[in-house]
Each structure stands twice: as C-alpha cells, then as structure tokens.
Amino acid sequence: MYSQVPLGECVPVSTPYAVSVSLPTWQDNVDYELGAPRVLERMVSGYPRFFIAKPIQALVELVKDRFALPNEAAMVFPSPACAERCIAFIYDQAPKQRSAEPTYELPARGQLRIVQYVAEPVDKRAAALDTIGGLFESPIAIYCVLLPEDLFPLAKQYWQHTGSGISARLADYCLHIARVNEECEREVRPYSPASRGGSARRKIGYQAGSSIPPVQKADEARSHETGFEADAYMEERFGRNCDPRHAAEMKAVLRRRIAGALSAEEQKQGAQVERGVAGLTSDDVYLVSTGMGAVYYAHLALLGMSGRKSVCFGFPYTDTLKILEKFGPGAYFLGQGEGSDYDELERILERHAESQDPIQAIFAECPSNPLLKTADLSRLRDLADRYAVALVVDETIGSFANVDVLSWADVVVSSLTKVFSGDSNVMGGSIVLNPNRPHYQPLRAAMSAMFEDLMWCEDAVFLERNSRDFMKRVPRINRNALAVAELLKASTKVAQVRYPKFTTAENYARIMRSTSEAGYGGLLSVEFVGGEGASRAFYDSLACCKGPSLGTNFTLASPYTILAHFTELEWAAKYGVHADLVRVSIGLEPLDELLAMFQAALDAIPTAPR
Fold it and tell me: What mean pLDDT is predicted for residues 427-442?
C-alpha cells in the first residue's frame, strides 16, 4: 500500500504529470483553501484544472516575456476557438461578478487580445530526431490570452470550469523546442518528456478576429484511423508504452474501447464489455482533454442546437453546475435529486413547453459525486421523451463497467482521468452519443461544427496504456469498496455511509449491469457521529494517500466539501453535502490491509463520553 505522502508532493510520489497532490491532514486542506503559504509554497503539483502545472507556468512566463505589456497576465490554450471563448466568458462574467464595484469599468476590447506562439525548431536536424515533431505537418501552435492582471481570476475560472487549458505534456514539449533552439549550435538531443526549460526564438502574433488557422474537425480526426490494424492487441503489438507516432491509432483504440467494440484479441485477455446500444460505433465517441471538457462541449453542442435553459437534476460535481449556470441562458437546479424534485422537474418542463420556450436538456450524474445518489433514469427518460428534451448523464462514478446509462441517455459524458485511467498521471474525457435517440442527428451536426481534436498525442498514448486493464481492475475495486463500506456502516462511530448499495439502491439496481463482475464502484462518502472533530481524527489517521481526484488504482481520500465548496459551505449543506464529509476512493490494495487501515482510523476517533 502507498503510505502517506508528504505535504505538497505528487500523488503517487515521483509521478510525472500527477493529477493529485498530497494534503495529508484536515488542516492542510483548510489552509490550502485559505491560501496559506506553508501549503502553497510546498506544492509541486495539484489537480490540473485548479493548479496550473509547473511546465505551463514556465511556458506562460516565456510567452509573457515576449508579448505582454506591464501589468498584464496570461493564460494559454490549445486552439484559437478556446482562447476566443475565454475572452467571451470574461466579457460576459465581469459585469456580473463585479457588479458590487460602483467604479468598475469593463476594459475595451483591445485590452484583451490573443497571440499565437509557435514551437518550431530552427534547426531541422532537431525535428528529424524528434519523434513528436515528426507527427505534424506544421509546427505546434498555442494561443495565449493577454489581459489586465485584475481579470486573471476570470480567465482562471474559465480554465477550471471548462477544462480547456493546455496539457502539461504539451507545455513541456514547447519548452523543449525552446531549449533546443537555444542549443541549436550544439549537439541536438531527442525529446524526452522529462525535459524542461528554455525560452523561445520563434513567435508569431495573432489578433482575435483575424484569419484563424484551420482546426481539426471530427471527421478529419477520424480520417487518420484508416489503415490501422485495430484488431491487434496493443500490449502485444507495441509493448507497454506506445510510440507517440501512433497517437492517432491510440485515439482510435480508445474510442473503440469506450464504445465497447473490443477486438477479439482484447476479449481473449478478459476485457469484455457491451454498451447495450444497437448501432453504436466508435464514430459516436468523441475524445476531449478533460472530464469537465466533456460536460462543457456537450453543453456547447446543445446550446448550438437551441440556446435554451437546462436543468441540473441532483447535486453534481461543482464545475458541472457552474458550466450550466455561467455559459448560456442559465439552468434550473434541483439539488436533492429525489422525491419532490421529480414533480418539480415535470412542472418546469411543462411550463416552458406551454410558453414556447422549451428546456433544452436534463443533466444528471449516476451515481452523483459526492452523495452517491442515483437518479431514476426511467422516469427522467419518460419526461425527456414527453417534452422533447435531451438527457445527458455523467457516468464517471459508476463507469460503464458497472452501469448502463447509455441505454437511457441521449448523451453520456465521462472523465477518463478517473478509474478508466487509474494511474493518476493523465487527463481525458469522452462524449458518447446514443444513435437511437431523436436528438442524435442534430447533436452529430452540432458536434461536427464545433468539435476539435485537442487531446495531446502523449496524453493519448498514456491514456490508452493505462486503460488496457480497465475491465480487470474495476471488479477488484468493487469488491474492496463494498467491504470497506460495510465495515464503516457497522461502526457505531459512523453516522452515515453514502454508497450506491445503500443510497437510492433501487435506482442503481435498474442500471447496474447484469454481469457477475459488475458492482457498486469504488467511491464512498462517510460522516461521523462526532461531527467535524471525528472527521478530522479519522482523516488524519487514515494511512493512505490523501488529496483531490478519485478512481485511482490506490486508495485516495479527501475532505471533499472543504475542497469543492469552501466558500459556500452553508449552501452545500442545504443539499446534504456537509462540511465534515470525508470522501474515499478505494483502490486495488489487498483487502485485509485495507480493512485494517480503515479500522485503525476508526479506532483513532475518540469515543464520546457517556
């Protein structure tokens, strides 16, 4: 088992591009939210949508040195469209979020601008030695939004909510090219993902509204898949880590894997899954750079179809609600996700239908994060059909190894960063369209019009590598998590265990796959009889990795509400998301060691006096 990792270190320790960071005590999490230097100054990594990775920070400074004016901040994106949406978001949100400042004036359009930064070796010998540089017909370009420093928090909000920022691996590659350019008169070394540093010699200005280089659309991205022997099992064909030259093929394999279209060779290895939707192909799967990117792009596609309000059914992961509220005309929030919320949902749908202003979509998580509630998808499907509304379901927590939500939904979104990858070292997301729903053709058209293949080649390679044994890992995690949940539930020190077997269990049973390996997933949340004091004692004594994220191959815990809702604790508590809640993602450790670890943490909670 992983022991506790020192404060601020990567989780797991020494993992390049780790997507979690160690916050080993309850107070560490509180101080992180308060911005305490003792925590922030020790952080070498963090969850990538909240913590701008060190390579990206270095690249931003490089671009600012070349282009920025005094008192300007910068944020980098992988495409012009992403950068322009960031600027649009700032102009939309600045008046709303700063309305309390009577003297505030929205900056003139020219004060927010986009520059294009091109990473191109000046020495062509470097390109010949560079396995990644040889993948592309033209140099790598990133797009930097330059803006007044006081507007940077809004740019950071856009980065966090949408997951549209650049990959740390892409930033490292740009820094590598800059370093090679500085060393062009010396012997050129091939690119290594561990390379760092340098400054750039090649740069090209780009202004918003000018001619934009063409982006890779969905059909163009798929054209690279022809000719690849997709039925060859990856590990046998390429070894543990594939060459980045095969990134397009890796994306094809990922899309087939998510669609359930596994090769015969993969099935021989025991990796069997059936999505249960007739006519589904890998062409119905879209890969994006992050899990929140999947929610964001699904929402953008729906906005492109109708531009109307949505409904968020149930208490979701924090940024899902922020996307629905801040992008477009807004959303209704039914945060309990059970009981009378179904009746209220029907009233909302009927009222809007009668006023000729129909709701565009219902968004739900199955199960939800962190309360592990499962919506009644049959009832939501009935309402969606009756009022011609799209149903979007996030399956991240359940995963398609355990639950079938695609049979009910128009769109399924998922964070591939989580259990699909498991190794906590790469970000990714997916969008799957159900070809048997009435919104399918309009959604396909909307996705084709705006979708860009922005997953960086190295990220695709690692995501493919990590997910090869996904279907084997999930049953082990299911068994471990169920045993831990039952141990906690039996303790007199525990007030409540939220886990799909115990929480809205009938709804989960309807979507749970019928295979013998299907289970309740690896995530659970727990609250204690002694309130926050007991939660602190339990969390501080738990001898596992502790930090943000979930779905890792190792057990990972966090005081979820403190990290996700620190500035809105009273609001979250109204929906049952209490400040003393501890969320635990169970991993692959030996079960006897896991149970002993959790029992020791329970024993550390002081017994209340009689």
Answer: 97
Q: How far apart are the C-alpha atoms of 313 and 362, rounded to whole Å? A: 7
**CA gap 288, 415 in Å, rounded:** 9
H or E stretch covering 40: helix 37-40
For residues 80 and 114, give the distance between their C-alpha atoms in angstroms, rounded to a whole number.
8
- pLDDT band, residue 122 (cuts 50/70/90): confident
How far is Cα 450 from Cα 429, in angstroms, rounded to an integer?
16
Both structure tokens of 264: 């015969």
Residues 6+ apart with CB under 8 A from 214: none
pLDDT for 4: 77
What is the crossing angle of helices 152-162 and 291-305, to 10°?
90
Distance (Å, rounded) from C-alpha 81 to C-alpha 57? 21
Which range has highest mean pLDDT (204-218, 254-268, 522-536)?
522-536
Long-range contacts at 68-74 (CB < 8 A, ≥ 24 apart): 68/146, 69/146, 71/148, 71/149, 72/146, 72/147, 72/148, 72/149, 73/146, 73/147, 73/148, 73/149, 73/151, 73/152, 73/155, 74/144, 74/145, 74/146, 74/147
One DSSP character per residue, 267-330 reads: HHTT-------TT--GGGEEEESSHHHHHHHHHHHHHHHT---EEEES---HHHHHHHHHSSS-
Q: How far apart are CA 560 and CA 530, in angstroms?
A: 18
Pair 53, 171: CB distance under 8 Å: yes
Rounded Cα distance, 405 and 338, in Å: 18
Angle at 295 (CA atoms; ends 289, 297), nearest 5 degrees? 70
* Nearest CA among 478, 362, 463 for reference residue 422: 463
Tally of CB atoms within 10 A around 549: 20
Query: What phi and psi, each to the nearest 5 degrees, are found at residue 25?
Result: -120, 160
H helix or E strand, kind and range, residue 114: strand 113-119
Phi, psi of 425 (to 5 degrees): -135, 15
pLDDT tens figures, 445-477: 999 999 999 999 999 999 999 999 999 999 999
The H or E element spanning position 495 is strand 494-498
Q: What count of residues does the chain have? A: 610
What distance in Å separates the CA atoms of residue 123 and residue 183, rounded to the nearest whole number? 9
Architecture of domain 471-603: Alpha-Beta Complex (3.90)
Q: Would you list the domain boundaries of the chain?
A: 54-182, 218-468, 471-603
- The CA-based dihedral angle spanning residues 435, 436, 438, 442, taken in that order and rounded to the nearest 10 degrees: 10
Mean of pLDDT values over 79-85:
97
CATH number of this structure's domain 218-468, picked from the four choices 3.40.640.10, 3.30.450.20, 3.20.10.10, 3.40.50.1820: 3.40.640.10
d(CA 13, CA 130): 29
* Burial call 371-398: b when 16+ CB within 10 Å, e when fewer: bbbbbbbeebbebbeebebbbbbbbbbb
For residue 104, give Cα distances in angstroms to 94, 146, 322.
9, 19, 24
User: 392: part of which helix (H) or strand (E)?
Assistant: strand 390-394
What string of DSSP letters covers 216-254?
A: --HHHHHHTTTT--TTS-HHHHH-SS--GGGHHHHHHHH
CA angle 448, 172, 292 (to 5 degrees): 40
Q: What is the pLDDT of residue 99?
A: 78
Number of Cβ atoms within 10 Å of the Cβ of 222: 17
